[in-house]
Amino acid sequence: xSGAEVLAGIxxxxxxxxxxxxxxxxxxxxxxxxxxxxxxxxxxxYLTDALISYRAMRNQLSAYGPLTSDQQELIKVGxxxxxxxxxxxxxFTQLCVDSNSxxxxxxxxxxxxxxxxxxFRGKELENLEKDFERYQRLFQTCLIxxxxxxxxATAILTQxxxxxxxxIQQSMVKRxxxxxxxxxLLVGQRASEVKDHVTDQHAETRTTMGYQLAxxxxxxxxxxxxxxxxxxxxxxxxxxxxDVIKKYDQLLAxxxxxEMNSRKNQVVxxxxxxxxxxxSDETPGSSEHFPIRTQWRLLNKGPATSSEGYNFEEKGxxxxxxxxxxxxxxxxxxxxxxNKSSETVRGKEERTGIDIEYDCASTASPTEAFTxxxxxxxxxxxxxxxxxxxxxxxxxxxxxxxTSPATQEHITVWRPGVRILSHYFWKAGTPMEKSLxxxxxxxxxxxxxxxxxxxxxxxxxxxxIRHKWSHADWDLQEIxxxxxxxxxxxxxxxxxLIDGLDESEEFGKHLTMRARNLTxxxxxxSLKNVKICFSSxxxxxxxxxxxxxxxxxxxxxxxxxIRQFAASRLKTVGFVSPWDEELVLxxxxxxxxxxxxxxxxxxxxxxxxxxxxxxxxxxIERVNHMPRDLIDLFRDMWERSxxxxxxxxxxxxxxxxxxxxxxxKPLSGVRKQLWIWH
Length: 678
Known about the structure:
InterPro entries: NPHP3-like_N, P-loop_NTPase. Helices cover 60% and strands 4% of the residues. The protein is mostly helical and 678 residues long. Strands 2-3-4-1-5 form a five-stranded parallel sheet, sandwiched between helices. α3 (69-93) runs antiparallel to α5 (123-147) and α24 (559-570) runs parallel beside α26 (596-612). It is elongated and about 150 Å long.
């Protein structure tokens, strides 16, 4: 046998003996861990050294020639022992529950020490222990003697190759030469080295853990102190937040008065499909309602007239109506005969069906007028005036502007994210509803809604407002300063809608006593992110003060809307002939002169009269007798003693109309389509 073969044989024997020895030690430590439930670093060391010895054995096999039967048996023992230890190692790999516990066996055992008792127990553990006992007996009884006898070991000591053996291998050969066969003696030096190494590592680990525990304790104390501080800060912050909320609620309550939204809520939404012209580029109605009387003219190739030749002009209406009525009685015309008549219209001016069509549909309004408001919304211009006669629907238009999505669509061109604030003066309301202070309180309250941070900044700017508890605590100068500051400091732009300037005597005096730029409207319009749209009657003070301000005259633009409303109401009457219905409709639309409230009252009067007498002549006479001025109309209704004067229900109706003039509240007997017109 060559020297290399001798050395390889000694190496295989030594490595297999170490695998068995470290395996037995690992099983003993494992049993200790099972019984006590505490981690032991020796287990990791023994399993690691057994794995190193196994790999060394495999490396020697590649450099060794054909094996003898004794050597093959040694290799088989080493392989079997290695497989058993790998099963033991696999159980501890399963104990890893997180990334930190994967680092070493100490971590695995510490994390799962409560479950170690349940691993690798029973028959499997018992069989593994028996296998290692059998391996040890084989070595002591025959394997050592057959692989390296005492005489063979003695001979090796004298060879030069002995010096190339490792320290452990030299120690093993010397002990075999001395006659020892116990594995514990043959590899005892290595086991002792491992034990010493483990002891040193354990001591080092305890020292390191002590340092780490001390550092961890310091960190815990620091974090605990920091957490306590954070909790205290959080409590203080909550207290501060609650205090801010209380102050915010107090401020809003001081800005609010009971009737602040009363007038706005009384203004009912507009009749369907009306006021669309505010945002439209086209004149409405000219093609949708082609009057029947115009069709008469086209069919008969002659001028269109009323069924009995009535003059639609207000002047001389009474005489013309009486004369025509007498003629009608003498001729005995019925409804069918009247529909076929073609007498011309009498009066100061002769008017055709085409003339009446233009009066009803558009009241001579150029197409350009219908875009003036949208151009203003998109422009940098700051003020816009919606003017009109009493009862022409200014309040309804203002509410329509405030609620229509088209307003936001157009004004976004000027500034994105515009907030709309509105206020409605009311002369018949409480003092706050018709005062300048009520306006300022209302706008400030709306501007601060859902803006607690802005409210907090306002309190810093005006500290005295912390002592405001009700609207009575504010004087006019304070609330004006607060509103101007809020609108200037706010992040978003504003559109202010102020309805009914003529409803406030105080506001009129305010305009007359100050220069335009010193009025509240002048100060508000000077803010770069504020636009103002206001409405009023065309009184002298407003015409002078707002000279040059862009405007819409509502009563000149509502002809089509009036016709739509009147047509919808008259459809419920049930005229015998559609020609009669169209005749009454055109007469009402022509005489309305853009005043919606007049139409509401007159249509209601016609419907009421129709229930008593459906004669078309009397209905036309009734419309012609209606005063075109609202005040005169109310007075006429109150004082009328003709055909309705003795009917109690008619007196009650007249009383209700008079109440409208004073209080502007909805009529109890009128359908829901009626509005409160301003």
